[in-house]
Amino acid sequence: MSKYVVLKSFSDLEDDKHIYRKGDKYPFRGKPKKPRIDKLMSSDNKLGEPLITELESDK
């Protein structure tokens, strides 16, 4: 399973406005949905820039 880290602090409008700070793991609970991950990794969001990135695998 992929893991993600927050690049820029934001309030997640699709998760009860949970506040993520730079360096936090995403998501803070549960399993992320692919469409949401894609949106947060791209510029196609309200802030217009990538907010999370995938962590490198330890494999």
Description:
- The strands form two sheets. Strands 4-1-5 form a three-stranded antiparallel β-sheet. A two-stranded antiparallel ribbon has the order 2-3.
- The chain has one helix spanning 34-41, and strands spanning 4-6, 10-12, 18-20, 25-26, 52-54.
- The model has no long low-confidence stretch (mean pLDDT 92).
- With 59 residues, it is of the alpha+beta class.
Content of β-strand = 15-25%
List unreliable stretches of 5+ residues: none
Terminal Cα separation, in Å? 12 Å
Oligomer: single chain
The radius of gyration over CA amounts to 11 Å
Count of individual helical segments: 1
Total count of strands: 5
Name the shape in a single word: globular
SSE run: EEEEHE
For the biggest sheet, the summary is: 3 strands, antiparallel
Instruction: Summarize the amount of helix as a percent range.
Output: 10-25%
Mean pLDDT: 92
* Strand-pairing-aware structural class: alpha+beta
Main sheet: strand order: 4-1-5
What are the salient characteristics of this protein?
single chain, 59 residues, alpha+beta, 3-stranded antiparallel sheet, two-stranded antiparallel sheet, 24% strand, globular
